[in-house]
Amino acid sequence: MAANSSSDVPTSPGGVSGIAKTPTGIAGLDEITGGGLPRGRPTLVCGGAGCGKTLFALQFLTAGALAHGEPGVFMTFEETASELAQNCLSLGFDLDELVAQGKLAVDHVHLERSEIEETGDYDLDGLFIRLGYAIDSIGAKRVVLDTLETLFGSLGNEAILRSELRRLFRWLKDRGVTAVITAERGDGALTRHGLEEYVSDCVILLDHRVSEQIATRRLRVVKYRGTAHGTNEYPFLIDEQGLEVLPITSVGLAYEVSSERVSTGVAGLDEMLGGEGYYRGSSVLVSGTAGTGKTSLAASFVDAACRRGERALFFAFEESRHQVTRNLRSIGIDLEPWIERGLLRIHAARPSAQGLEMHLAQMYRELRAFDPRTVVVDPVGSFIAVAAPADIKALITRLLDFLKERQATTLLTHLSSGSSHLEQTDFGISSVVDTWLLLRELEAGGERNRGVYIIKSRGMAHSNQVREFVLGARGMELLEVCVSPEGVLIGSARIARREGERGAPGMAPEPRAGK
User: Are 103 and 140 in contact (CB under 8 A)?
Assistant: First the structure.
C-alpha cells in the first residue's frame, strides 16, 4: 500500500510540522514515522540475518520508482544484480523491468576480503565516483547500500573506519539523496561497528525473534532526528506482497457511530433486540459451551449480510473453509454461492501458525483488502494457545477499534468453560463489546435443549427472556414462549402443553415479545 506522497511539509504523529519526509511505500511505517524517512538524509536499517533488511530497502526503492516518480540506485556488495532480481520476483518486484525503464539502477560491487589490503591511505573515493555516476545516470532521488559489513568488514583500523563512515554519510547528504543503508546487528550494539547508529539521522531496528516456538518479526524506530515518531516495538509481516508494519496503538475513541440497524439473520433474535437487530458498526459477543450453536448463529449473521449485498469476512480459527461450509449446509445455510459471487471470504488459519500480533497484522491486511461491512471471528478463545489472556484482550480491543473506525459490524464467538460461571469470559472481553448473547443448554425432563438470552445490549431496549431455539433445516429458529404457573416450559413439556392442555384455565401459551 503506497503512502501519501503529499508529505513535503509533513506532520509528526503529534501534529507538529517537522522536517521534509519521503514516503517509504511500506504500509504502517509512514504512520509510525509521521510521513516516511528523512528526505535527503541517510537512514540506517539494522538487524540480524533474515530479518528483512534487503526487502525493506527494495520496497523503499520500488515504491519511489512506481508511486512517486523518484528513480533509485541499489548498490549491493553481496548479491549480484541477477540474483537480486530473481529473489525479488517472488515478492512481486520486477527489478529488470524497472532497470529497463530507467527507473532503477542496480550495481553489484564485488569485494573479496583476501584481495583487500588495508593501508593508511585507504578511502572510499572510488566508491563515491561509482555511486555518483549511477545517481547521475538516472537522476536518482533514492539510494540503497546493502550492506556496510561487506564494505568495511576487512578493516581493523578503527580510526580509518570512523573517518570513512562519516565521509560516506556526509557525501550522501551533500548529494541530497534519501538513502537507506543496511547493517548487521552487533553484540551489545545495534551494529557490528557500533558507530553507524550515531552518524545516521534515522535508525530502524528489525528483529526476528522466537518465543515458545512461535516466530515474530518486530520493528522499532530507535531514533529519528528532528521529528516525533512512534517509539514502541511494532510487529510486521513479510509475505508475497512485501513488508507491512502494524502499529500497535489503537485508533482511540474518536470514531463515529451509526443508528442504523442490521438483522442478526434470525427473526426471533431480531425481535429480542428491539425488533431490528444489532447497531451497524457495533461489536457482538456470542458465548456458550460446546455445541450450543455459536458458529451457526455467526453464519446466520453472515448469510443475512450477503443477502443484503454486503461483503462479509469470516475468520475461522478451528475449521477449514470447506469444513465450515459443509457443516452449515446441514442447517440450511449455504455460503458457497456468496463466496463464488465475491461477497464472502473465509480466512482459515491455525492459531499456533504464528504469533498473536502476526495474526492481528494478517487480519488487518485482509480487512483493508476486502473492506467488509460484516466480520466474524470464530472463536476468539482459540488464541489462548499462543498468548496470555491480557494480550488476547489487547488484541481484541485493537481489532474492534479498527473495525468500528471502518463501521464494520463484528461478531465474536467464545467457548465458555462448563466448569466456570457462564456469564464471564476467560480474558475479560465482555466489557469492550456492545452486545453480549449467551447460548446455553436447558436441561429438563431428561432432555438437553438450547436457549439464548441477552446479557447486555448497549443503547437499545432488549428482551429479558431466555428463549429456546432449535437448529434445523431452516437454520436457527427461536421457539414461541409457553408459560405455566411453574414458569417457562421447554422441550417436550412445551410441546405437550401446547398440544394437550391449550384450553386449561390460566395455562394458555403466552407469546412474549421483546422487552
Answer: no
